[in-house]
Amino acid sequence: MIVSSLCLRPRCTMASRLLLLPALLLLFCGSVRPISFQLSPNGRKCLREEIHKDVLVTGEYDVSEPHGQGQVRLKITDSSNHILYSKEDATKGKFAFTTEEYDMFEVCFESRHPAGAGRAPDQMVVLNMKHGVEAKNYEEIAKVEKLKPLEVELRRLEDLSESIVNDFAYMKKREEEMRDTNESTNVRVLYFSIFSMCCLMGLATWQVFYLRRFFKAKKLIE
């Protein structure tokens, strides 16, 4: 992997880092864009995403003003239905949490309107979620560690390269696990096929001897 061989460690010279800067800046061309959707009265919409272990997840949400006495509930859960964040009257705010395991996380917006309130218009929901390198606040890091703008950008690129390397390592691990599962399944299918053939051959042999004895008993054959 090319990314794993990049020289972004403190022992590298500033000149080496500057040579890598133009290439890695291409990775930042795709900016994170918020997700927006319409939420109908008493409706529910959820977004799911798989996130790795020990990854910081941050988000901002903005819900348009409800009609009448309605409100929108925001709830973030994992695959075990553990609540990571919950807000009963979600209008505008932020949330943050760190994942403990690789898991599927679900972000749900649920509209609640009282009965008999009449038909209410849909509400606009804007959600902007970030995780990993995107979620880090490098401005605070620069203030704490007193870094220069170029050093902050290099720190960002270093974290991004490490994130990419970790993703490749995880995909390689998953590929090895899937290959092992595939090979194990093939071996089991082979043994099961051999066992099935032996059973069929044994059953066919038994039927031949049984029918032969039956026909001899009826004196149909000698």
TrEMBL record:
It is a single-pass type I membrane protein. The keyword Mitochondrion does not apply. Residues 44-196 form the GOLD domain. The lineage of its organism: Eukaryota, Metazoa, Chordata, Craniata, Vertebrata. Its main location: endoplasmic reticulum. Keywords: Endoplasmic reticulum, Membrane, Signal, Transmembrane, Transmembrane helix. One of its GO terms (cellular component) is endoplasmic reticulum membrane. Belongs to the EMP24/GP25L family. The keyword Protein biosynthesis does not apply. The chain crosses the membrane at residues 189-211. It comes from Engystomops pustulosus. This is GOLD domain-containing protein. It is found in: Endoplasmic reticulum membrane; Membrane. Residues 1-34 form the signal peptide.
